[in-house]
Amino acid sequence: MAAKLNLDKLDLQIIHEMMENAEISYAELGKKLFVSGGTIHVRIKKLQELSVVKGTKLHVDLKQLGYDVIAFIGIYLEKSSLYDSVARELQKIPEIVRLNYTTGNYSMFAEIVCKDINQLRFVLHDELQKIKGIERTETFISLDESLNRNVQVFKE
């Protein structure tokens, strides 16, 4: 994919560094990669225009904010052709933080974050089950997250 987008080693180094620490200044990153801060700025702008870089995110410890339940939901659709309409409805549920169209047992797989089991029950029973096209769901509650990392796009 990098070849298709015409990304070079510097682009990949910038992506790698920014994935590790998006707060680093362009000047500081430039020093680290032996180029000017202006070069970093131009490259980041190019990566944004190519939609390789889509903003930055603040990593928040949700448990510290009272979100104690993370669950994964396997969703069976009545027909796979209903994916788009079901996905639109699922996107309206704020507790769903990730949604994928999948192969295998489920048509869709969602990650959901809730403050407690009561909120999870509400989302599952009162919101998910009323969406037309969902045949049934299977819920997996996460007991602990052992790993959460980005893919390595560049190795020095």
Automatic annotation (TrEMBL):
Residues 7-68 form the HTH asnC-type domain. SMART domains: HTH_ASNC. InterPro entries: AsnC-type_HTH_dom, Dimeric_a/b-barrel, Tscrpt_reg_AsnC-like, Tscrpt_reg_AsnC/Lrp_C, WH-like_DNA-bd_sf, WH_DNA-bd_sf. The keyword Transcription regulation applies. GO terms for molecular function: sequence-specific DNA binding. Keywords: DNA-binding, Transcription, Transcription regulation. GO terms for cellular component: cytosol. This is AsnC family transcriptional regulator. It comes from Puia dinghuensis.
